[in-house]
């Protein structure tokens, strides 16, 4: 596995691979890798002959400077983990100046999907996500790119930008990977204290309870309010808990196929997100 830090070196590799008939699979990440990221790498089995994992903590998607500074980092550990898989050809780890050189002034905006849920909660966040993902897809020459369903709103935005910009890449959704207690794997989980980490399992359990109440005939509004109360009583600061249509992210008043429950809640100041489909 090569560690590449510049666009020039990456482009030379990508050009050679494409000339040789290779297909390139990409997993964009912000590092601090875990089994959820490795599931994205494995999802490319049989779909790409070359694989690139990028590690870049993207400053323009953070609207909180402290959150950016505290985001977990560990490139050496990430490289060792990827090397062990035997599946990754390149770890692309550009510096901030490589991604955003002096004078950089462009943003990619995906209007509509970016204004609800996490978009309303974190203004400008998805502009930063859309910009860096567009750059990474172009820089890596990706034929296929894997993204996790844990960040479902992000996944929808990426589908939209790829379609709207006619980017020649297939987006591969990968189901959320969870710990034994149900908590969705996230790099942010590492910032939780042992007590908070144990408490965090209440989040997915509450989503399941909420879905069960809806399926049992309780109204969506009553189910959501009951579960918001449960989370608040457990010590969570609830940013949102909503039932939305999967394709448009518009609010849903009835639980059924094509709808999904979305939540963002903070525990000890650490923001956690999750979602579950109505099945």
Automatic annotation (TrEMBL):
Chain positions recorded as beta-alanine binding sites: 61
Main location group: cytoplasm
InterPro entries: Pantoate_ligase, Pantoate_ligase_C, Rossmann-like_a/b/a_fold
Cellular localisation: Cytoplasm
GO cellular component terms given for this protein: cytosol
Keywords of this entry: ATP-binding, Cytoplasm, Ligase, Nucleotide-binding, Pantothenate biosynthesis
Active site positions, chain numbering: 37
UniProt-listed CDD domains: PanC
Reactions mediated catalytically: (R)-pantoate + beta-alanine + ATP = (R)-pantothenate + AMP + diphosphate + H(+)
GO molecular function, one term: ATP binding
EC annotation from Swiss-Prot or TrEMBL: 6.3.2.1
GO biological process, one term: pantothenate biosynthetic process
Pathway membership, UniProt: Cofactor biosynthesis; (R)-pantothenate biosynthesis; (R)-pantothenate from (R)-pantoate and beta-alanine: step 1/1
UniProt: (R)-pantoate binding residues: 61, 154
Keyword Ligase: yes
Enzyme class, spelled out: ligase
Positions bound to ATP: 30-37, 148-151, 177, 185-188
Function: Catalyzes the condensation of pantoate with beta-alanine in an ATP-dependent reaction via a pantoyl-adenylate intermediate.
Subunit-level organization: Homodimer.
Similarity field: Belongs to the pantothenate synthetase family.
Further remark: The reaction proceeds by a bi uni uni bi ping pong mechanism.
Record protein name field: Pantothenate synthetase
Organism of origin: Acetobacter garciniae
